[in-house]
Design a protein that fits this description.
The chain has 17 helices and no strands. It is mainly α and 326 residues long.
Length: 326
Amino acid sequence: MDGADLAPFVGGAFDVRAVGAGIRPDTKGGFLLGAVPWGNFPHGDDARQALYLLHCGDSPARHAAGLLGGLCANDSRAAAALAVPFLIAIATDVYHPHRAAALGVLSAPARARHFGVASRDELLLHRTDPRRHAPDDYDDYGVEVTGYPAGWSVAAARAAITTEKSALLPLLDDHDPTIRIDAAYALATAADPDHTVRNAFATKTAMERDAMARAALLLAAAEATRADPHPPTAAWIREHWQDRTQPPEARLAAAIGWLCLTEDPAPEELHHTLAVLVTEERAQAMDALPWMTAAGSTEPGLLRCVRRMLHPEEPEPDDDPWASPL
């Protein structure tokens, strides 16, 4: 619980980072769920059952994946983080009927706080406290609702994605644009010291013909750059929102990403670009991007990002349908 001495548990059977790192390739490949101590973690049995259903196809994939995503939405990520290596095994199996559902949920535990987040300070930032600029050792993330260390869950999920990034990168070339979008979303959470992932985002952006998938690659590049600052990439993203030959969705994604990478006031050119390109219809369509889905609340994610980033002084709209009018 909060305030407890965690030292005796580091690296042990209740440390999801250690348990996740210890999952053998043959355990993942053979889907040997019984080899993993699910019961050591909050909601572990629920996560195991959801994985079993996804793997076997005995239940609607949306329900099983939704259970894992729901754990993260409810601030209980440990068991979902432990599920990530198995979700990657499903997602990278081109013959598996539920690969899209597995891919869509596998990076949820890798982002400590992102639901409803839409400000320049917080969007694309996986930390719980955007004011901190210390090296990310995951020790200051606080606790989840169950009392489990939140940073341990996030670190375990990100480590699993990093370990398997070479298996996930080919999904950026998948024939299905939804797979390409979700692959970019997952890979944006990987540690990338050699810039393999960030370079892949740039390369694929130049080749991508689907407007929404191109937007996803630009947001993924911005998220990776926020974790590992790289001025040339920030400049490249700025060029994309300034480029009128780019699809509107790509320009909007680049504008949002660039605003998160700089503390400079938004220039008049950007205000004009957003004023011209942002429409209710386009905002609804861009909720196909998981970043925008997570940012939304009572309004589409794009509209909320634009309002929070350009007009942070404005109060949040009242989302209580039972509130009495003033």
